[in-house]
Amino acid sequence: MSSVKRVNDFTIKIATVNGTGSASANTLLMKSIFRSGVPVMGKNFFPSNIQGLPTWYEIRICPHGHLARSGTVELMVALNPETYGRDVREVAPGGFLLYDSTWPRPVLLSRTDITVIGVPLARLCNENFTGVRTRILMKNICYAGALAALLNLDLGHVRALLGETYGRKPQLLESNMQAIALGYEYVRAHFPCPLPLSIEPLERTGGHIMIDGNTAAALGCVYAGATVAAWYPITPSTSLMDAFKGFCERLRVDPQTGAKRFAFIQAEDELAAIGMVLGAAWNGARAFTATSGPGISLMSEFLGLAYYAEVPAVVFDIQRVGPSTGMPTRTQQGDLLACAYASHGDTRQVCLYPADPGECFQFAVTAFDLAERLQTPVLVLSDLDIGMNDWMVREFQWDDAYRPDRGKVLNAAQIESLEKFHRYVDVDGDGIPWRTLPGVHPKGAYFTRGSGHNSFGAYTEDAAEYQQVLDRLLKKWHTARQLVPRACLDGEGSEIGIVSIGSSDGAVREALALLRAQGIALDYLRVRAFPFGAEVEQFLAAHRLVFVAEQNRDAQLRSLLTLETAVEKGKLRSLLHYSGLPVSSQFIVAGVLAEVHGAAAAPVVSMADTTV
Amino acid sequence: MTFIAKPKVTHPALPHNARGLTRRAYEGALSTLCAGCGHDSVTAAIVEACWHLALEPQNLVKLSGIGCSSKTTAYFVSGAHGFNAVHGRMPSIATGANAANRHLNYIGISGDGDTLSIGLGQFCHAIRRNVDMLYIIENNGVYGLTKGQFSASADIGSRAKKGETNRQPPIDPVLLALDLGAPFVARSFSGDKHQLVPLIEAGLNYRGFALIDVLSPCVTFNDHEGSTKSYAYAREHYDPVALTDFVPREQPITVDYPPGEARELALHDGSRIVLRKVGADYDPTDRVAAQAAVRAGSASGEYLTGLIFIQDEATHPDFHRLNATAQEPLNGLPFEQLSPGAAQLERILARFR
Fold first, then answer.
1. Predicted local confidence at residue B141, as pLDDT
2. CA-to-CA distance for B215 and B137, rounded, in angstroms?
3. Domains of chain B
4. How far apart are the C-alpha atoms of A334 and A503, rounded to whole Å?
5. What 3-state class would DSSP assign to B231?
6. Helix, strand, or coil (residue B246)
């Protein structure tokens, strides 16, 4: 049996039962690796449940900083008897498996091509700790200690991290360190350490942080000056609102009076949540909501009103698996079409597609500027993978010179100088009319309505008047095309291209590097906004064959591209991943190779330089 | 029916209010409702109340949903912003607007369909949140714009114009609001200007959720014999429990009432509500008694009207007081007070390293 020898380049997968406290042990491990200067990524595959169902956490260590799943598992920590069978099968040949040897597990011995490491985690904890809950919690910390020994992880980082968590509770710090030591010492005494898989300190995480996209988006909302947040709880968006509230309670409460410079409203449903956002934004506050697919369905009526009556709004859609309730704790890019055309009638919505937490922070600010500039909803389509997993991204930057673009809002003096204010007249030729806020000037008053209206804001059923407003909205849509973030472009003029979106980016980037190593070069375009800019049209026109990689069954991005550009449908090849787990680089490589070499060729994924 | 004439021209002799404005300044576009519609009377009462209170027109915000009632926000105070939202969703728009600027006067106009069917959830939750607004239901028991279907406020046994009889129990917004903890609950009749105008004034000045359910007959689809929301029925089964006078801030009480039969309530801004008791032992500050009185009235086919319940503002904080929101409107806070800046970002990000 040959073991895989990999330094700083492998994937650990930890199989546990949810509700047992394994999340903190997993984060502890991941952050210890990060503090060793080694790029790392963590993905949580958790059930829609509070306690008792299988859950997995995947930690990928990659010296090149690739942010996607590799598609293989070199070290499995199998602590959930219910899933032993599949967990054992998933280990790559030559890989390793750690299990709790307190009880015999003959099933684990069914493979001869992997190394099995038994650590009596439960016994160690039962002998050293009292209380059922403590023993269960410490078992997790104990496997983190065992892994630290196996991987040669610096215990100094582990202690420092625990110190930051339990700084004010020294007893907890000591009991956690004791659990770490139990696992660490047992492994050192019984197995050769480190394994062929190991961590060696690097200096490749400087200037980076580990953060999830929901926290990043919430921080972006704080920095953008959002004051009204209304939402209805829904997985996986809830942590965005929790984070916003947390930041505001720290940063926006007057220390003397306790007065809050924000309003945080838990609505009765998503219909009310978006209504509150529209009411607040119409009244001049920066307002937003966060939701997921089912919420988008419910909000669609109001989103149509906002489009037609020209009311700003920012909506974060943290996409999860559909249709319907789907799998609430799994990821997908399944709302692309629902968001782009949210609501009945001729409605098109401005959408932004962040690819990682860094863009969640940045696009939160962009979204408010665009919403107010364009007087229309802006939907930010993140997903569960970006929103709830910790990503290693560059530290966010903030320019203190930034001032929000509040768009075309007339102040009292400007209104006073007008003979008459007309809400929906295209004064500047860009399709964006001027608006006024309540409480400013009686001459600025107008009537906002979702019913047919003319350029002056009055009710109309007149064909020409109705059409004039609709045509101006289309003109505004073309203005939006100029203002939204450009697509990202990479490549050196290959005749084959690949297009992706959002969280598919990491897998595509790594796949492109792997393919290049095999002599296959692709140009790459990552769409970052809807409407599509001219660069999207040009990219599609310039390539003979274009792969479209996305995470849904129905090729929604491909549909959008064929609907909204002049591209020939026939040259677009879909790479569709919709299992609910984040797409791996291996999946993209296999799909491209199948097309390039013909369907018969076996997908080849090689990481030869790191495998012995 | 409109009981307050709408002048076509501004006559120099028109009376001016404390702000130097005539009633014309509080009017809106010409109504397109059916001639004789009760809603037009409500509109006229709102104009009268706003003029009497001498509101700054731009400080009023008019909100509505969809339906005949919801059209009426266009027919008063043209100097105020209006928002005609989607069906049943006005309360959420009002909540958001109020969150953005707590200092404006919010008036929501809705109907029985808009409030009690499609919008029942939002209505209930606006009450629970105690959004500072006046919420008027123009209640005619029927869907007008879609031509005569029963609404959720239609009484059992009431007959539609085409002869169908309603068999489902009605939802009484007054009882519902009392149950949900609304701090200001009133009922009136579109044809009773003397009762309705002071109620609107009090509701506009009350800090918190003020509900006025106004029986407002539909002359086209629900004014026939067999309807319990017709003019004839309402006039015959009308039982005012408490008449109200509203005295704006810094004005002496000049209403004519016998001492000992009146009770005065002060509002946050110094204005006062004077209750003139009609029912011998009616106490509008007792929620349980109010509920019992409304139930007893409806059991005998009577509409109990007037200020049915009012709670001291101090004992029932509105949304902003509960939230401890800053006094300055959120929509006017300087950016520097909202965005923490680059140095703070550095500190925030430290815990993600």
1. 87
2. 8
3. 23-337 (3.40.50.970)
4. 12
5. helix
6. strand
- Interface probe, candidates B132, B339, B346, B347, chain A, greatest A C-beta count within 10 A: B339
The 10s digit of each residue's pLDDT in A229-259 is 999 999 999 999 999 999 999 999 999 999 9
| Nearest CA-CA partner of B188 in B106, B33, B308 | B308
Helix (H), strand (E) at residue A173: helix A170-190
Q: What is the pTM of this model?
A: 0.95
Which residue has 């782009």 as its token pair?
A: A340
Of B95, B333, B353, the CB nearest to A261: B333
Above 0.85 for ipTM, yes or no?
yes
Q: How many Cβ atoms are within 10 Å of B1's Cβ, its own excluded?
A: 14
**Closest chain B residue by Cα to residue A283:** B97
- Which chain A positions have a beta carbon within 8 Å of B341's beta carbon? 398, 400
- H or E element, residue A63: none
> Among A353, A382, A377, which residue's Cα sits nearest to residue A214?
A382
Dist CA A546 CA A569 (whole Å): 10
CB pairs under 8 A between A and B: 218
| Cis geometry, peptide bond prior to residue B7 (ω within 30 degrees of 0) | no
- Nearest residue, CB atoms, A445 vs list B78, B335, B342: B78
Residue A340 · residue A313 · CB < 8 Å: no
Which residues in chain A touch residue B342, judged by CB atoms under 8 angstroms apart?
Answer: 397-400
Query: Which pair of structure tokens corresponds to residue A95?
Result: 């890989």
CA distance A169 to chain B (A): 18
Q: Closest Cα partner for A577 from A488, A487, A502?
A: A502
Token pair for residue A559?
């549909």
CB contact under 8 A, A282 and B83: yes
Tell which of B81, B110, B129, B351 to mutate to test the A interface (max A CBs under 10 Å).
B81
Q: Where are the beta strands (DSSP E) in B216-324?
A: 238-247, 262-266, 272-277, 303-310
Strands A529-530 and A496-501: what pairing?
unpaired
The CB density around residue B103, as the number of other CB atoms within 10 Å, is 13
Delimiting residues of CATH 3.40.50.920 domain(s) in chain A: 488-610
**HEC string for A337-404:** HHHHCCCCCCCCCEEECCCCHHHHHHHHHHHHHHHHHHCCEEEEEEEHHHHHCEEEEECCCCCCCCCC
The distance of A478 to chain B (nearest Cα, Å) reads: 26
Q: Report d(CA A337, CA A381) in Å as an integer.
A: 11
Residue B276 scores a pLDDT above 90 = no
Distance CA(A459)–CA(A443), nearest Å, equals: 18
Residue A107 three-state SS? helix
> Does A47 sit behind a cis peptide bond, omega within 30 degrees of 0 on the bond before it?
no
**Contact yes or no for A271 and B122 at CB 8 A:** yes
Cα–Cα distance between A575 and A578 in angstroms, integer? Answer: 10
Instruction: Kindly report which listed range (A290-304, A405-419, B166-180, B235-249) carries the lowest average pLDDT score.
Output: B235-249
Domain A488-610 classification at class level: alpha beta
The amino acid occupying position B335 is F
Which CATH superfamily, name and number, covers A211-394? Answer: Thiamin diphosphate (ThDP)-binding fold, Pyr/PP domains (3.40.50.970)
**Tokens at A45, concatenated:** 């595959």
Q: Is the peptide bond before B198 cis (omega within 30 degrees of 0)?
A: no
SS3 state of residue A13: strand
* Chain A: residue whose CA lies nearest to B29: A458
Topology at the third CATH level for domain A6-206: Pyruvate-ferredoxin Oxidoreductase; domain 3 (3.40.920)
pLDDT digits (tens, 9 = 90+) for B52-109: 999 999 999 999 999 999 999 999 999 999 999 999 999 999 999 999 999 999 999 9
Q: How far apart are CA B197 and CA B189, in angstroms?
A: 11
Of A390, A408, A383, give the one whose Cα is nearest residue A479.
A408
